[in-house]
Amino acid sequence: MSFFSTRLEFLRGVGAQRGQLLGKELGLFTYGDLIQRYPFRYLDRTQFYNVVDLHEDLPYVQVKGILRNRQLVGEGPKQRLTATLSDASGDLDLVWFKGIKWMQQIVQNQKEYILFGKPTMFNGRPQMAHPELEEVTEAKAGQSFLQPVYNTSEKLKNYHRVDSKAIMRMVADLLKIALPHVTETLSPALVEQYALMGKAQAMQQIHFPQNPDLLAAARFRLKFEELFYIQLKLLRQKDQRKVTLAGQIFNQVPTLVDFYNNHLSFDLTGAQKRVIHDIYKDFCAGQQMNRLLQGDVGSGKTIVAFIAMLMAADNGAQSCLMAPTEILADQHYQGLKVYADALGIHLGKLTGSTRTAQRRVLHEELRNGTMHMLVGTHALLEDVVQFRNLGLTIMDEQHRFGVAQRSKLWQKNPHVIPHVLVMTATPIPRTLAMTLYGDLDVSVIDELPAGRKPIVTVHRYDANRLKVFEFIRQQVLLGRQAYIVYPLIEESETLDYKDLTDGYESVTRAFPEMQISMVHGRMKPEEKDFEMARFVKKETQIMVATTVIEVGVNVPNSSVMVIESAERFGLSQLHQLRGRVGRGADQSYCILMSGFKLSKDARTRLETMVRTNNGFEIADIDLKLRGPGDLMGTQQSGVLDLLIADLAKDGRILSESRAAAQSLLAEDPELARPENGNIRHHIDSLPATAVNWSRIS
């Protein structure tokens, strides 16, 4: 057993009960867990303030002076201990409401103390309540340091006295015995190239930094190492898969040439052509393709997917396209069937509502190979769905599908693993894509098809509602349709946001002459589909909905998107909702409605939406505002298990660490050279299930 696997209860001053609580409340079980529980901030105890300079906007500060006038004031529950600290510039009032008896023994008149606390103003005078204090002795006269602050839990703090300071003391005790066991995990070349602090010194300085410069160097070292090992792991997986997993070769493209020349009624954008070229190169390489295709809403990913499916069909292989909802699957099917029929390609559709008799025929056609392409939902995953030769699997809105579901599709060809194309209209920030999908090849469609007009986005306050309704009326009279999206289904006592049922009634009153649909997540799928279908057929002019339409139908005729209580939505969600309009040739509009009271973040989100239509810029700002935890439905501590790096802020370090990992693997793919022994040894010491390879094992 390694030193860092030692259970925490064996650390001086911890014991069995505390050890159990630290495990339960904070997930700290071993020496390794505790030493990698890095402080989340530091209190600056490097600077002493003069009393005259104190004001309540300051954070926790340090003051040195002579204590005077110590006295008990009041009686019973209102009793408090007060005193004054004087320095050359003035007097600071001190007060303690708790632990008075204990403080009376410690606090003495006419002695010099260092105080640390949050200054406030009371009756025009500076005051500190419950400051930390230490008597000035010769040894402590010039004391100055950055004090680490650790996350803890209410239960540990309130009932077991394990606050940040208690954790600080545990870490200090651990470091005394642990530092000789901290080994260097990076090669000498990397340490030199990136001017990195040594691992043991970094562990000491991250917890108890001597000054801000050493803290910055320790942080850079630990962040670089963490991101380097994540990238190393992903890049090795990618390389190994290319070596071990063969893929069918699709190099014959006669039908594709026919499609280009005779059936494609519009020009592809440069970005679409670039992606198709990437895919064709993958198909000719003889290894399994694993490609992530990112493209904003309406950028033309579906036609790229169809072209990839045509390449498979031209080489005797079948393909399937899986979408997260029946509506979306049906939309893909209807859009592609026109082309498939013209080319003599047999395209099928399989969803939960496909009838049994149709399924039997479809299953047989898949098995005997007469069906070339299949579009569907989760129904494609059923065991009874078997292909003659599945060569390509495509997943739309891939974050809606789990890894297990994806691998189930790959198993539909027992002889050679199918090529994989995963598509998303949710722009993924570059740093997150490099980390979550670093083992995939990434292609981006970053232009809109010709003729598409950018959506005009405006922010309006609730007071302008009548004008907004009048604008909707004018658009409908021009033959267009509108969405009005609400954040809640029913009124909430705790959240003052517009709700759907109330909204539906007010919209019905405002537009008595119009037909209105309502769609929300609590409706049965068939009810939802019925209302959506009415809107698609233009039987209703206005769709009142919740966010269920976020990933949904293509209605080129809808040109207005009104988002109520827009401050309630995240940036990427606002962008997704906006993408429901702007799909036709007409000018489209997105109107963000909100109250006057807006938080700073909410204002940033709305201003960003008004300023730009660029999904990738929006995703980067969203990452900075929200952090990576929320963004892809993955908790930072779950999928990534990050200890210190922050993908929202550490993009530069991530790029450097990825470049370092790529360069290392290019020169020494097996990490067999003696100079890379530290890296090899560190990886070998980790359990096979380790997610974050930078963890101390």
UniProtKB/TrEMBL annotation:
Classify the source by domain of life.
Bacteria
What general EC class does the enzyme of this chain belong to? Answer: isomerase
One GO MF term, please?
Answer: 3'-5' DNA helicase activity
Q: Does the keyword ATP-binding apply?
A: yes
Which CDD domains does this chain map to?
DEXHc_RecG (cd17992), RecG_wedge_OBF (cd04488)
Q: Which residues form the Helicase C-terminal domain?
A: 464-629
Keywords per UniProt = ATP-binding, DNA damage, DNA recombination, DNA repair, DNA-binding, Helicase, Hydrolase, Isomerase, Nucleotide-binding
One GO-annotated biological process of the protein? DNA recombination
Record's Pfam families?
DEAD, Helicase_C, RecG_dom3_C, RecG_wedge
Kindly state which reaction or reactions the protein catalyses. Answer: ATP + H2O = ADP + phosphate + H(+); Couples ATP hydrolysis with the unwinding of duplex DNA by translocating in the 3'-5' direction
Ranges for domain Helicase ATP-binding come to: 282-445
> Which SMART domains does the entry link to?
DEXDc (SM00487), HELICc (SM00490)
Which EC number(s) are documented for this chain? Answer: 5.6.2.4
The record's similarity note reads: Belongs to the helicase family. RecG subfamily.
Chain's role: Plays a critical role in recombination and DNA repair. Helps process Holliday junction intermediates to mature products by catalyzing branch migration. Has replication fork regression activity, unwinds stalled or blocked replication forks to make a HJ that can be resolved. Has a DNA unwinding activity characteristic of a DNA helicase with 3'-5' polarity.
What this protein is called in its record is ATP-dependent DNA helicase RecG
